[in-house]
Amino acid sequence: MTPTQAVLVLQGGGALGAYQGGAYEGLHKHGTKIDWVVGTSIGAINGAIIAGNRPEVRVEKLRAFWQRVARDAPVLLPFFNTPDWLRPWSEAGKVWDTVSRGVPGFFKPRANSMWNMNRNGPINQASFYDTSPLEATLNELVDFKYLNAKHVRLTVSAVNIATGELKKFDNTVDKITAKHIMASGALPPGFPPVEIDGATYWDGGIYSNTPIDIVLDDAERSNTLCFMIDLWDPTEKAPASIAEAITRQKDIQYASRSAEHLDDHERMQNLRRAIQLLSERLPAKDRQSPAVKQLIALGCTSTINIVRLIMKALPHDDQNKDIDFASTTLEARWQAGLNDIARALSHKAWLQTPPVNIGMVVHELKQI
Predict the structure, then answer these.
(1) Is residue 223 classed as helix, strand or coil in its secondary structure?
(2) pLDDT per position in the chain (368 positions), as tens?
(3) Is the CB of residue 291 less than 8 Å from the CB of residue 348?
(4) Residue 302: CB atoms within 10 Å
(5) How many CB atoms are located within 10 Å of the residue 250 CB?
(6) Alpha carbons 308 and 306: distance in angstroms, whole number
């Protein structure tokens, strides 16, 4: 069976998003044509660069973004590898470097914001950082005219601050600008809300950091191959310290119950397939009943294959891994994504025809 659409789903996770860049490079090298990209937060930024450029320059533009936001890690002991006992201080130095100076091409500190958090002012300044550098970066690296020509469908999500509801911005319906991408990544209190058409928005990850539901709600009637690139692993070891507890809390929170969502949709899709199979066994006269017709309409013959990659933590990752923009760390994550997608593509389990009663199959790449 040839899928009618290939989808790329990109989770939010700040600096961890370099893994998604590597994964897309692997898909591009393999010649996998992506029809639809769905992203939240950093996934929306990566997604906009992918959907907003011609295929031959997408990897180049993704590389340009991640090279621009990379920082040289501060070195405490020049000319020597950091010893294990000093590593926590080295990691703290990287975090402080990002917190105090921001990230080039992404965000910069807002003057005095940390010392007077009760100061009233314009809503677009209600944050520790100014993200105007990101707007300039997006306008440089994303061809929004190409993006809005709908060569690749792009959907990004944000939360309406006034209603608390998830808003989906889609280039098949909306004219997407840098503001829409920034809204999807406006994580408070670090980043300011973004105003679009009179409404203000925060990061879609506040509501759901894994936008797989957007795809599965849409794809129930279409043969679909979906590459789901997760940045937070919900199955790491139990913590042995307060620092490890904070790390695990973030992993679980931002993983957004991906497995639960997949299980729910898998049951629903298999039920739709069961309805279709049962309806085909009904006598023709029974299928003419209005009530039966309504039930038959719930059935479907489409198959959804989910290829799920979950980024494995690096040996010294901690609770600040999503703001670790050190160039060596970003390159390691990029290479991990490239390696993992290569392993996934070597199996091609989704090419196997599933049993007739199965409407959705999840292929999860084992971590090594």
Answers:
(1) coil
(2) 455 799 999 999 999 999 999 999 999 999 999 999 999 999 999 999 999 999 999 999 999 999 999 987 654 444 445 555 445 545 555 676 777 788 999 999 987 665 566 666 677 778 889 999 999 999 999 999 999 999 999 999 999 999 999 999 999 999 999 999 999 999 999 999 999 999 999 999 999 888 999 998 887 678 999 999 999 988 777 888 888 888 888 888 888 778 888 999 899 999 999 999 999 899 888 888 898 989 888 888 889 999 999 999 888 888 899 999 999 999 999 999 999 999 999 988 888 888 999 999 999 988 87
(3) no
(4) 19
(5) 17
(6) 6
Distance CA 89, CA 174 (A): 46
Alpha-helical (H) ranges within the chain are 18-30, 42-51, 58-69, 87-101, 132-141, 144-148, 178-184, 212-219, 242-255, 258-279, 290-296, 327-347
Structure tokens given for 11: 């989770």
All residues at 6 or more sequence positions from 43 whose CB lies less than 8 Å from its CB, including other chains = 9, 10, 11, 12, 13, 17, 20, 211, 229
DSSP 81: P
Residue listed under structure tokens 């909306």: 174
pLDDT score at 74: 55
Q: Which residues contact 359 (CB under 8 A, 6 or more apart)?
A: 269, 270, 272, 273, 300, 302, 303, 304
How many CB atoms are located within 10 Å of the residue 104 CB?
A: 14
The pLDDT value recorded for residue 351 is 82
CA distances from 270 to 50, 217, 298, 327, 363 (A): 32, 14, 11, 44, 16
Region of 313 please: left (phi>0), alpha (psi -120 to 50) or beta.
beta
DSSP state of 314: P
Cβ 275 vs Cβ 299: under 8 Å: yes
Backbone angles phi, psi at 359, to 5 degrees: -105, -15
The pair of structure tokens assigned to 169 is 């911005």
Cα–Cα dist 194/247, whole Å: 28
> What is the Cα Rg of the chain in Å?
22
| Helix (H/G/I), strand (E/B), else coil: 337 | helix
